[in-house]
Structures are given as C-alpha cells and as structure tokens.
Design a protein that fits this description.
The protein has 184 residues and is of the alpha+beta class. It is built from six helices and six strands. The strands form two sheets. A four-stranded antiparallel sheet has the order 1-2-3-4. Strands 5-6 form a two-stranded antiparallel ribbon. This is NEDD8-conjugating enzyme UBC12.
Length: 184
C-alpha cells in the first residue's frame, strides 16, 4: 500500500513538472474562469465600452463601463457589474447597473431586463454578446418588455417627453418624484 502511494506521488510530481496539473498552493482554475479567459481574449470592444477585469480571476466579477455616443443616453457614464457563477456558460451572469437611471429596461435597483440574460441565454453566447446587448439597451430602449413601467409608458406615449425625462435624470434630477444618480 505504501509503495502505491509513493508511485502516485511520483506521477503527480512528473505531471506537475510537465505543466499538466497545478503546483501545490496554486488554486485550480474553474471551467467558468477558463471560459471567461477565452471570452476576454477574443473581445472586440467598441470605443464607447470599456471593461475592468481586475476582479475577474479572483471572484469571477467583471465591470463594464458604457458611454453611449448616440441616442437618448448619449454621453452618460454607466457602470455595470457582471457576476459569473461557476455554472457559466451554462447559466448567464447576473448583470446589474450600479447607478439609478430612468430606463424602461433597467429598474431602480439596477436589475437589467435583457432577453439574452434570461430566457434567450445559450452557452454559445459570450461576454461579447453581453456587451453588445447592454449597448443596444441604450441605443434602442424597449418599452414592450419593461422592468420600469413608468419609463416604458412615457417612452410609448410620448418619446419627446421621454427624451426630456432621460436628460433630467442623467443630470441627477427628479422625474415623477424619483431622484436619479448623476451620470453625466
């Protein structure tokens, strides 16, 4: 029995020297982290989007900064936190906006209503897909699938009033009795 254990240790040491298994003290890399590395390596980021990967390796969290260059939310600065569970890419990440804004598809707590982060998620989707989806929320807000019904109703009924309300909210103003974070 003792000889078997010694043989096993020798094989592990050989594999470690060949680089096929991590050395003691080095944490094994999860499937989620491997996929995230692959996704991040293949990103094609538009100029109005930036990402912060400083916490990505340690806790599978990614910060996404979007500054739309057109549309209702032009020149606003929006920071999202995407948290990836160990089940990624089987399950989508949880994405939240860290500021309170007036948007039909983002509620006051920062929850995001985006089909690819819910029922349309597929393991073939990646971080690039999420970035494009978030950017599209600012370029084309959707009043038909709202998390913020008040904003959706204004967008559907009066797009000019919606534009004014968004401009007020981006400056940290009050819309319909609700104060918003200054993001401009």
């Amino acid at each position: 029995m003792l000889k078997l254990r010694q043989l096993q240790k020798q094989k592990q040491e050989q594999a470690r020297q060949n680089g096929t298994i991590p050395a003691p003290g080095n944490a094994p890399v999860s499937a989620c982290q491997l996929r995230l590395r692959k996704d991040l390596a293949s990103l094609d980021i538009p100029p109005c989007v930036s990402i912060d990967v400083s916490e990505c390796e340690s806790n599978s969290r990614l910060y996404i900064n979007i500054t739309p260059d057109e549309g209702y939310y032009k020149c606003g600065h929006f920071k999202f936190c995407a948290t990836f569970k160990d089940t990624y890419p089987i399950e989508p990440p949880k994405v939240t906006l860290l500021s309170k804004i007036f948007h039909p598809n983002i509620d006051l707590q920062g929850n995001v209503c985006l089909n690819i982060l819910r029922e349309d998620w597929s393991p073939v989707l990646d971080v690039q897909s999420i970035l494009i989806g978030l950017l599209m929320l600012f370029l084309e807000p959707n009043a038909t699938d709202p998390l913020n019904k008040v904003a959706a109703d204004v967008l559907a009924a009066n797009p000019h009033q919606f534009r004014r309300d968004v401009a007020t909210s981006l400056r940290g103003g009050q819309v319909n009795g609700q104060w918003y974070d200054r993001v401009i």
